[in-house]
């Protein structure tokens, strides 16, 4: 019963080949509906009670996924050709569509139209594949109509031509927008309809008769791709990935190989609709039009003014009819001018350009978090009915997004997710559509979800397939493992673990043992996994047998390593200690039990190792790590403070470094071309400039020519009167560092393996396999190096390893960003409703700018800008100062400040106050609500005169 | 026709005498008269994966030609032309007498003969095998497999080559970009897919092989007959029916009368194949 | 590449346990003692048999049984890119040996001492499964040549892709990187004549794939039987016509 159709296709694979494939047409493909008497009951999927069956067109699947995912859209026929076209065009949409077809509630039925003998259509001579596929989809809809005469069949397509043809063939057809309007039972459905090109085309069509409102173009057209490609080849244009300023969606940079320096893109017109992450083609401006980065802090008022005025022009335009006051794209935006880096006078001008084309959009399919822009008239609220509103994104680097919604009234106090669909030349903002509501603004759960989403942290639960791999609980040591000759039984050793309090995923345990002959044996054992794994089976809890992987060193009493050995093992932790407990055991000389003595011995060895490491030039850097005390009931933070580091932290760290370095050596020895290592590139000299400048201003010379000289300089940067000074210098040094990255040893030369910060020629991550995937990979390679398991084939596949490494680096960075954002969120919650004065003992100036300071409050780990003229500005909200450089706009009222770059000092012209880097100052910390429903921590200088004498330092 | 067992044995022991008996009566053992050719069948596109193909049978004699197109740079001495490269294979299956592993000298001779014809442009103008832009050209590899080598191989191979060339369609290519790489024209143009292009062939040649046996002209001999002939003559007539080539291998002289007879037979075949 | 799509169909529209369309023709070449073409989908092979005949090489003549030889080759135009001439094609040599070995076990060679049987296989179109198609074609050609045989032989391959055992892989599926097992059976005697794979695969997968391939062999055998019967039918019809005319 197979029928054979052979069709011919030409492919490009270096050569031009004729490809012949068989195509079998079948009789055993069913409609999936119980209403069809010929349908095999096994393939029933569509509900017999559905209002209608919807047949999906490819353009709807590609652009209206948020709409399709809504619970009210059910009983959909997905022709296989649609699935195939989506797979070829957009993998992430394809995965979502597949999930829909797998869902029992959505009832999306895949109809194999291409293999059904009655619905297969052959490409006509002269017919494009697109037209042929459209015809195939219409044919499928027609077939359903014929098969089930009683059930309305609706072809859902945003292609007007396809609709016309379908209606001609007697099949009902509708656009998504029309269908959403039809569904009065679910008003929010309309919000989800993407304002894509198709819909806009439809609006134009519809509005055509009523005298179209002629919109002026706001942006230059993008050049066609062919011209862009030719321009890049000819050196006229430059290609790069756009990075947009964290504070301003209208300022960005691209780095490209064709131009030595980064190219600055400044202003709405120059960015020409490009957004963060897009791959763009840029044309350089004439050199006299180049600009420099700002020495000016964007003030909250400026940012607010910018936010508040966003959208005004467009509204004016709409209201004003003939008088359209669009912002000239070439002009700087009022209020943000200073922030936009428009410091023409600065000597450090840099290549400046404008975007001529977007090579690849990177609009996030997961959407952007934001909230509706509040109504301009305070107190007014969004009315009922359909409204066009602007969504203010949580991240300032993104522009406002215009959406159409019927739920404006209910959404005004919510955090929502919107997706971007298009950005036309005649629109100031991209158009998008509502996706979902996260919750109330300011709510901890909501905001946590926001930061996870913004940082692309996947919190979807593990799939059942993953859970199926996990052994059931309670887990106990199996006989097979115990009998494995490759597994050493180390249960007799006095092993213990040292972790932060409350740690559930205990992933390392230590021991030390004196060997006959006076040498010592040092051991460390280690074992993103589902919970039963991370918190039980792989967690090295005390008193139970656990499988582990052990690194064992034989060392001399002065910590010279004699031999290194790795083995699978069985261990039984004697005790699970916290850092503080371990410290107490070490400090309490009276304790002479195994574990305590061991810890003491290990601590001694760790100190030697540490000293040796710094001798080599390893940097001891500092970063303000903050801890929160969390209310056990509400999970709200009760107190925040700097994380206290003890000897034991350093001891555990030292053992971890030793294990990681040893493993890196072992794996690289066995697999020089495919070991996963971690390197820390030496920072470029210019990265140290802020540090050198700051130190110089404080009277210290820093030699950053090597990590060793840097370490020595940092050690020397000590002020007797100021014990915290050194820490500040180290924090500053940390910020000069480049990011350490994972890499595949086969991709780089040996000198490039170097880890700058640790001054180690080789390094990797091995010690935390239950929470870092990189360590799992390294474990596998080490197993192979020891001959215990074959090297996973995927490790030999270079492109695949490269993908893995890239993903590891991206995930690592995202996790760091999310961690930072989480700290910020908790800080905000802590300061919500309280105003704290951080006095001069605990607040330091980290950077000096022409109009303000960047201050650091170590006690809370807070760093933020303060504005010198804040006090004077009070009560003058909405000042639209657009003056460059110095802040001198309001004559007479605001005192002038003079900025001395060399001395890193800013002082009032009248000599009243002066601030130098590393100075202390007092600030008031409070939470402020800003225009875009963002909450920010506001720092304001507190007059020193108001403080007790003793605190007036520096 | 029924041959008695005795006749069979005689034919095997004294093939020349046996054959002479038939010829003396104006007949041949397979029932044909001396000037009668075998039936011809031509089937095109028998191998779907090739760019074009043709299976030609001349009685039992069978040849399968398949063409594969490749894109190449033009040769220096002929910048405006592509090429057609013919290769004839006599795989061991083609006859009971062939032994595995040997490259047949006959295959080499046929390759040279047909290859020369194709290269000279006598089959089709090679300028048609260039691409828009002119930086690259088509090379049509025509591989001819003789599946049953039952005589007049030169004819059956040429007919198969011609039939395959007739069936060939050159895919539409985009004008070459700056990189010079030829790519298939996009299917998704507003005008629809670009149409492939057939070759304009020269007026086709019709070949005919004849043998001379004891002064008699034998048209379109089988393999058995060829082994007995004093000489073999291959001639070709062109579109106008003019003699476009004669080659004679070995043996006795070729009389004017024989040539005229052979020409007539070739004309008949030509008309039968091409129509009046 | 998705080798089995959401609704369980393969790229060409087959289900995992379906073979491609089979076609066969016997006595396609007049000069050979036996010949046949056999097609599995777009794979098309031609087999010719010469013999049993007197062994050409006396030194290698086996006085107790017939010698079976095979030469397998692929036409230049049979595959995607044109194949360059090259006699030392190791794969072809290996395939030749496998075909000869498989069919020799099924020929009653002991009835034909001092003879040789030459099997020539030419692949005209390659779309996966050539080795099995060659065995099937050669079996028909041997039957056409009247070579005495023990049983009917049928060959079919199966592979494993996307976690599914797939019968009779085509070229695209063959290139999917999964394992493939070729099986030839004596379908009446239930004997395995050939079982061949170049890939590593677990025991469970291996068993599943072999089972599927064996099912494929049985389907092929049924088709070969029909082909042979039709051919014999035509022959006897031709004979009776010849007899009535005489």
From TrEMBL, chain A:
Cellular compartment(s): Cytoplasm; Nucleus
RNB domain ranges (all copies): 487-788
UniProt region (Disordered), positions on chain: 329-351
Biological-process GO terms, alphabetical: nuclear mRNA surveillance of mRNA 3'-end processing; rRNA catabolic process; rRNA processing
Pfam family, one: PIN_4
GO molecular function, a single term: endonuclease activity
PIN domain mapped to chain residues: 52-164
Gene Ontology cellular component annotations, sorted alphabetically: cytoplasmic exosome (RNase complex); nuclear exosome (RNase complex)
SUPFAM superfamilies with a match to the protein in the record: Nucleic acid-binding proteins, PIN domain-like
InterPro entries: Dis3_CSD2, NA-bd_OB-fold, PIN-like_dom_sf, PIN_dom, RNase_II/R, RNase_II/R_CS, RNR_Ribonuclease, Rrp44_CSD1
Residue spans crossing the bilayer: none
Protein keywords: Cytoplasm, Exonuclease, Exosome, Hydrolase, Nuclease, Nucleus, RNA-binding, rRNA processing
Cofactor dependence: Mg(2+)
Keyword match Nuclease: yes
Family: Belongs to the RNR ribonuclease family.
Protein name: Ribosomal RNA-processing protein 44
Organism encoding this protein: Auxenochlorella protothecoides (Green microalga)
From TrEMBL, chain B:
All copies of domain Exoribonuclease phosphorolytic, residue ranges: 36-171, 208-268
A biological process term (GO) from this entry: exonucleolytic trimming to generate mature 3'-end of 5.8S rRNA from tricistronic rRNA transcript (SSU-rRNA, 5.8S rRNA, LSU-rRNA)
Family assignment from sequence similarity: Belongs to the RNase PH family.
Subcellular location: Cytoplasm; Nucleus, Nucleolus
Keywords: Cytoplasm, Exosome, Nucleus, RNA-binding, rRNA processing
Coiled-coil blocks: none
GO CC field: cytoplasmic exosome (RNase complex); nuclear exosome (RNase complex); nucleolus
Name this polypeptide is given: Ribosomal RNA-processing protein 43
Gene Ontology molecular function: mRNA 3'-UTR AU-rich region binding
Pfam entry (one): RNase_PH
UniProtKB/TrEMBL annotation, chain C:
Domain Exoribonuclease phosphorolytic: 18-148, 152-215
Keyword Signal: no
UniProt-recorded name of the protein: Exosome complex component RRP41
Primary localization: cytoplasm
An example Gene Ontology molecular-function term: RNA binding
GO CC term, one of those recorded: nucleolus
Pfam families in UniProt: RNase_PH, RNase_PH_C
Family: Belongs to the RNase PH family.
Keyword vocabulary terms for this entry: Cytoplasm, Exosome
Superkingdom in the source lineage: Eukaryota
Subcellular location: Cytoplasm; Nucleus, Nucleolus
UniProt xrefs under InterPro entries: ExoRNase_PH_dom1, ExoRNase_PH_dom2, ExoRNase_PH_dom2_sf, PNPase/RNase_PH_dom_sf, Ribosomal_Su5_D2-typ_SF, RNase_PH
Gene3D superfamilies listed in its UniProt record: GHMP Kinase, N-terminal domain (3.30.230.70)
Annotated GO biological process: nuclear mRNA surveillance; poly(A)-dependent snoRNA 3'-end processing; rRNA catabolic process; U4 snRNA 3'-end processing
């Amino acid at each position: 019963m197979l029928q054979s159709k052979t069709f011919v296709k030409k492919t490009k694979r270096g050569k031009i080949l004729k490809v012949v494939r068989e195509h079998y047409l079948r009789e055993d493909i069913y409609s999936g509906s119980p209403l069809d008497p010929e349908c095999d009951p096994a393939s029933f999927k569509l509900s017999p009670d559905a209002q209608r069956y919807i047949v999906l067109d490819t353009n709807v699947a590609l652009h209206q996924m948020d709409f399709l995912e809504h619970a009210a859209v059910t009983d959909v026929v997905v022709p296989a050709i649609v699935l195939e076209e989506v797979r070829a065009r957009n993998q992430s949409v394809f995965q979502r569509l597949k999930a829909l077809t797998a869902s029992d509630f959505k009832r999306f039925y895949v109809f194999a139209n291409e293999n059904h003998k009655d619905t297969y259509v052959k490409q006509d001579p002269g017919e494009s594949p697109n037209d042929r596929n459209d015809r195939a989809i219409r044919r499928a809809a027609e077939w359903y109509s014929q098969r089930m005469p009683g059930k309305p069949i609706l072809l859902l397509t945003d292609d007007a031509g396809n609709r016309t043809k379908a209606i001609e063939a007697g099949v009902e057809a509708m656009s998504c927008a029309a269908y959403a309007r039809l569904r009065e039972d679910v008003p929010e459905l309309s919000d989800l309809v993407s304002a894509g090109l198709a819909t806009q085309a439809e609006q134009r069509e519809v509005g055509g008769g009523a005298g179209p409102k002629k919109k002026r173009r706001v942006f230059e057209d993008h050049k066609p791709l062919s011209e862009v490609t030719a321009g890049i080849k000819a050196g006229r244009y430059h290609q790069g990935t756009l990075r947009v300023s964290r504070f301003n969606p209208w300022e960005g940079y691209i780095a490209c190989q064709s131009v030595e320096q980064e190219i600055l893109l400044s202003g709405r017109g120059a960015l020409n609709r490009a957004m963060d992450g897009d791959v763009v083609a840029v044309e350089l401006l004439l050199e006299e039009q180049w600009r420099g980065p700002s020495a000016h802090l964007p003030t909250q008022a400026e940012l607010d003014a910018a936010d508040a005025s966003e959208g005004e022009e467009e509204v004016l335009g709409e209201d004003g009819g003939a008088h359209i006051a669009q912002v000239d794209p070439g002009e700087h935006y009022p209020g943000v001018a200073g922030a936009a880096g428009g410091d023409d006078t600065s000597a450090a001008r840099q290549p400046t350009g404008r975007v001529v084309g977007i090579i690849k959009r990177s609009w996030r399919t997961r959407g952007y978090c934001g909230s509706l822009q509040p109504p301009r008239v305070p107190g007014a609220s969004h009315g009922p009915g359909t409204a066009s509103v602007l969504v203010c994104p949580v991240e300032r680097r993104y522009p406002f997004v215009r959406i159409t919604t019927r739920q404006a009234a209910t959404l005004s106090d919510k955090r929502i997710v919107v997706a971007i669909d298009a950005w036309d030349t005649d629109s100031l903002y991209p158009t998008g559509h509502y996706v979902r509501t996260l919750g109330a603004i300011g709510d901890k759960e909501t905001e946590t979800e926001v930061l996870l989403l913004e940082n692309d942290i996947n919190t979807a639960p593990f799939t059942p397939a993953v859970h199926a791999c996990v052994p059931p609980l309670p887990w106990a040591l199996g006989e097979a493992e115990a009998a494995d000759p490759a597994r050493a039984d180390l249960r007799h050793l006095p092993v213990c673990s040292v972790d932060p309090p409350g740690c559930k995923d205990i992933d390392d345990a230590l021991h030390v043992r004196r060997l006959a002959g006076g040498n010592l044996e040092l051991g460390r054992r280690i074992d993103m996994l589902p919970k039963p794994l991370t918190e039980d089976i792989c967690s090295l809890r005390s008193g139970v047998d656990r499988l582990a992987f052990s690194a064992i060193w034989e060392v001399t009493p002065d910590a010279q390593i004699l031999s290194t050995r790795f083995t699978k093992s069985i261990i039984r932790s004697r005790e699970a200690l916290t850092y503080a407990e371990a410290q107490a055991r070490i400090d309490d000389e009276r304790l002479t039990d195994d574990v305590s003595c061991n810890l003491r011995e290990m601590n001694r060895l760790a100190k030697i190792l540490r000293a040796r490491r710094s001798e080599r030039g390893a940097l001891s850097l500092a970063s303000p790590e903050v801890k929160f005390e969390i209310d056990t009931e509400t999970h709200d933070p009760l107190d925040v403070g700097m994380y206290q580091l003890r000897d034991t932290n350093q001891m555990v760290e030292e053992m971890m470094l030793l294990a990681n370095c040893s493993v890196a050596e072992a794996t690289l020895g066995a697999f020089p071309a495919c070991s996963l290592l971690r390197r820390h590139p030496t920072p470029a000299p210019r990265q140290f400039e802020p540090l050198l400048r700051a130190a110089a201003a404080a009277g210290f010379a820093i030699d950053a020519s090597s990590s060793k000289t840097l370490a020595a300089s940092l050690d020397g940067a000590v002020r007797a009167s100021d014990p915290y000074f050194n820490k500040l210098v180290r924090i500053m040094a940390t910020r000069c560092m480049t990011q350490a990255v994972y890499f595949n040893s086969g991709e780089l030369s040996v000198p490039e393996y170097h880890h700058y910060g640790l001054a180690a020629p080789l390094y990797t991550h091995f010690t935390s396999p239950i929470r870092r995937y990189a360590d799992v990979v390294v474990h596998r390679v080490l197993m192979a190096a020891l001959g215990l398991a074959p090297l996973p084939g995927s490790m030999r596949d270079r492109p695949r390893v490269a993908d893995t490494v890239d993903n590891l680096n991206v995930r690592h960075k995202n996790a760091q960003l999310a961690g930072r954002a989480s700290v910020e969120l908790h800080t905000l919650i802590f300061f919500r409703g309280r105003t704290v004065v951080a006095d001069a003992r605990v607040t330091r100036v980290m950077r000096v700018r022409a109009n303000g300071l960047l201050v650091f409050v170590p006690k809370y780990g807070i760093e933020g800008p303060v504005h010198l003229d804040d006090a004077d500005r009070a009560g003058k909200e909405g000042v639209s100062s657009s003056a460059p450089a110095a802040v001198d706009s309001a004559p007479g009222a605001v005192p002038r400040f003079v900025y001395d770059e060399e001395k890193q000092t800013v002082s009032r012209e009248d000599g009243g106050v002066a601030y130098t880097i590393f100075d202390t100052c007092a600030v008031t910390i409070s939470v402020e609500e800003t225009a875009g429903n963002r909450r920010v921590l506001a720092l304001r200088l507190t007059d020193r005169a108001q403080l007790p004498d003793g605190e007036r330092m520096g | 026709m029924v041959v008695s067992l005795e006749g069979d044995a005689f034919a095997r022991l004294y093939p020349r005498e046996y054959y002479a008996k038939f010829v003396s009566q104006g007949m041949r053992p397979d029932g044909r008269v001396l000037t009668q050719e075998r039936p011809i069948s031509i089937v095109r596109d028998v191998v779907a994966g090739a760019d074009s193909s043709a299976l030609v049978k001349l009685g039992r004699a069978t040849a399968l030609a398949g063409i594969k197109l490749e894109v190449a740079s033009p040769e220096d001495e002929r910048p405006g032309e592509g090429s057609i490269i013919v290769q004839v294979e006599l795989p061991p299956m083609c006859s009971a007498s062939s032994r595995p592993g040997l490259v047949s000298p006959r295959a080499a001779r046929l390759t040279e003969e047909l290859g020369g014809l194709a290269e000279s442009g006598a089959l089709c103008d090679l300028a048609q095998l260039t691409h828009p832009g002119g930086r690259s050209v088509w090379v049509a590899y025509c591989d001819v497999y003789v599946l049953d080598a039952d005589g007049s191989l030169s004819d059956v191979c040429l007919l198969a080559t011609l039939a395959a060339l007739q069936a060939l369609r050159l895919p539409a290519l985009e004008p070459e970009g700056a990189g010079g790489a030829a790519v298939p024209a996009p299917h998704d143009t507003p005008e629809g897919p670009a149409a492939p292009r057939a070759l304009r062939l020269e007026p086709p040649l019709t070949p005919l092989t004849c043998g001379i046996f004891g002064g008699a002209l034998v048209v379109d001999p089988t393999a058995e007959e060829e082994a007995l002939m004093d000489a073999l003559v291959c001639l070709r007539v062109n579109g106008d029916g003019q003699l476009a080539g004669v080659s004679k291998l070995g043996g006795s002289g070729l009389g004017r009368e024989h040539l005229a007879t052979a020409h007539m037979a070739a004309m008949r075949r030509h008309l039968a194949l091409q129509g009046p | 590449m998705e080798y089995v799509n959401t609704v369980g169909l393969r790229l060409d529209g087959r289900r995992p346990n379906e073979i491609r369309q089979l076609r066969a023709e016997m006595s396609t070449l007049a000069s050979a003692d036996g010949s046949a073409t056999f097609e599995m989908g777009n794979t098309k092979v031609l087999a010719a048999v010469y013999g049993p005949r007197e062994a050409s090489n006396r030194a290698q003549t086996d006085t107790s049984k017939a010698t079976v030889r095979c030469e397998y080759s692929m036409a230049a135009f049979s595959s995607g890119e044109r194949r360059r001439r090259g006699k030392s094609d190791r794969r072809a040599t290996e395939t030749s040996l496998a075909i000869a070995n498989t069919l020799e076990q099924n020929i009653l060679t002991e009835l034909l001492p001092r003879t040789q049987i030459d099997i020539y296989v030419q692949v005209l179109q390659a779309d996966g499964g050539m080795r099995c198609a060659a065995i099937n074609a050669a079996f028909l050609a041997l039957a056409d040549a009247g070579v005495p045989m023990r049983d009917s032989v049928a060959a079919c391959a199966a592979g494993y892709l996307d976690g599914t055992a797939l019968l009779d892989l085509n070229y695209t599926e063959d290139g999917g990187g999964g394992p493939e097992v070729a099986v030839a059976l004596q379908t009446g005697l239930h004997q395995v004549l050939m079982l061949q794979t170049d890939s590593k695969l677990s025991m469970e997968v291996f068993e599943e794939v072999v089972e599927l391939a064996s099912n494929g062999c049985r389907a092929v055998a049924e088709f070969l039987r029909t082909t042979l019967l039709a051919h014999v039918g035509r022959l006897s019809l031709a004979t009776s016509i010849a007899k009535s005319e005489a």
